[in-house]
Amino acid sequence: MHRIGIVGAVSFIAVASATTALATPTVHPQTTAAGARFAAEHPGPVRSLDAVAHRGASAYAPENTLAAIDEAAARGAVTAEIDVQLTADDELVIMHDATLTRTTDVEERFPGRAPYDVADFTMDEIRELDAGSWFDDSFEGEPVPTLGEALDRLEEHDLNLFLELKQPALYPGMEELVADEITDRRHWMRRNPPWQPRRLVVQSFDWRVTERSKELMPSVPHALLGRVAEDRLDEFGWADLINPNHTTIDAEYVDLLHESGFEIMPYTINDRARMDAVLEMGVDGFITDHPDIGRAAIDDFSGDRNPRAPIVVPPARPAA
Ligand code: G3P
Ligand code: CA
């Protein structure tokens, strides 16, 4: 469903061309009085809703693998979410748990290496693991990918990415390695128009590390995972989205986030009725193991986005 009108598009183009010479904003436009005034006076296009494929399309393929990314694309996803951690030899690796036991055959391959923390294994060792058989025999031999391999595969499919910095407290400085990897790749640093789902969002439950990552990549949208208390929203003006567990939100909270300048895409919703319910609350999308069901819910949704998330084009700054 397309909710952008010609007027919105023309408005964006005019605003964008007026601001192309400006430096990348480091604060959310809504955090300044000028930004809030600008947004109110220049209603722009509405970003299309998105059903983000959680850990890839993890209902249909082993989570956080290239197969799950392939499946996300095959199931009509526009965006995939994956989790990144750090190996013993400082390689960025795609894995949800801090240990390798649940989603690989590490205990068979490396007996006696308990507790099997990701941080205790080199990337060469992790490359020996089977990350597919636990899910289904048809995925036997599916490897654990590096972040670089996942970025390549996402780009091949023209998929957007929600990249979660998973348990960064275990890996001091991981956000700097992630920023190096991303900023080296022009594709991921390119912005897409505000009516399209975002090309890249970096997110974490660790809000301090999320802020540090935003400082390293100011032009990349960042999301706080978890529910931020109403009286603390002012502390996070640098963030672009707040993505709470879907069980913790209601329409009032969604409205408050929008009024405060944030988008909201809750996790992890696998039930169609619940997808419909959060869309009615006015969310900007949601994260799901079933991107195909999510896409159908979005396509069937006929309600208004009210209030919509504010435009993301920054206000013009006076010439020095
Ligand atoms: O994208 C948010 C969601 O992935 C957070 O939960 O535990 O699946 O990483 P988790
Ligand atoms: Ca995640």
Structure description:
With 320 residues, this protein is of the alpha/beta class. The protein has a single domain, classed as TIM Barrel (Alpha-Beta Barrel). It has a 6-stranded mixed sheet. A two-stranded parallel sheet has the order 1-8. Strand 5, helix 9 and strand 6 form a beta-alpha-beta unit. Helix 3 runs parallel beside helix 6 and helix 7 packs parallel to helix 9. The N and C termini lie far apart (42 Å). The N terminus is likely disordered. It binds SN-glycerol-3-phosphate and calcium ion (CA).
Chart the SSEs and their pairings.
Elements: H1 6-19, H2 33-41, E1 50-53, H3 66-74, E2 79-86, E3 92-94, H4 106-109, H5 123-127, H6 147-157, E4 160-165, H7 174-183, H8 186-189, E5 200-204, H9 207-216, E6 222-225, E7 241-243, H10 251-259, H11 272-281, E8 285-288, H12 291-300
Parallel strand pairs: 1-8, 2-4, 4-5, 5-6, 6-7
Antiparallel strand pairs: 2-3
Bound molecules: SN-glycerol-3-phosphate (G3P) and calcium ion.
Calcium ion binds next to strand 2.
